[in-house]
Automatic annotation (TrEMBL):
Its main location: membrane. Keywords: Cell membrane, Membrane, Protein transport, Transmembrane, Transmembrane helix, Transport. The keyword Transmembrane applies. It comes from the Bacteria. It holds the Pfam family ExbD. The chain crosses the membrane at residues 12-31. It is found in: Cell membrane. Belongs to the ExbD/TolR family. This is ExbD/TolR family protein.
Length: 139
């Protein structure tokens, strides 16, 4: 009878394969990481000119389509019925082909009124993207 307990074999962890996996992960992370460079090497202040680029300094004149707080629609300051707005815009476009429009709406203007104005613009041949909305800055 054997009274000595049997020694269990010590489990071995294959460390070589773990090192291989760690090296592969390190290569993967280095290869897929994006390194950002600071693009501004030299900080400079650009000069300004009053004579060059004079065209950009002149603001372009646009004809305004306005909606006031009483939900009245105006084309270039003249009151217009909403049903006649598309015809008036077409007539303006024929009289002055290079005319650009802008939309000025009061803060209390109803969304339904704006949608009807946009429909009139589309009917007159203007894209909504071509008619910017002017927002007044708070003073």
């Amino acid at each position: 009878m054997n009274l000595r307990p049997k020694r269990r074999p010590v489990p071995m962890i294959p460390i070589v394969s773990l090192i291989d996996i760690m090296v592969i992960l390190l290569i993967f992370f280095v290869a897929t990481t994006t390194f950002k460079k600071d693009k501004t090497q030299v900080k400079i202040t650009l000069p300004e000119s009053k004579s060059l680029g004079g065209e950009a300094a002149v603001p372009e004149v646009r004809v305004a389509i306005s909606i006031d707080d009483k939900q009245q629609v105006f084309l270039d300051g003249q009151p217009v019925e909403l049903e006649q707005l598309a015809q008036m815009i077409k007539a303006l476009k024929e009289a002055k082909p290079g005319t650009k429009l802008e939309l000025q709406a009061d803060t209390t203007a109803a969304l339904g009124k704006l949608v009807k104005v946009w429909d009139a613009l589309r009917e007159a041949g203007y894209s909504i993207n071509d008619v910017p909305a002017r927002i007044q800055r708070a003073q």
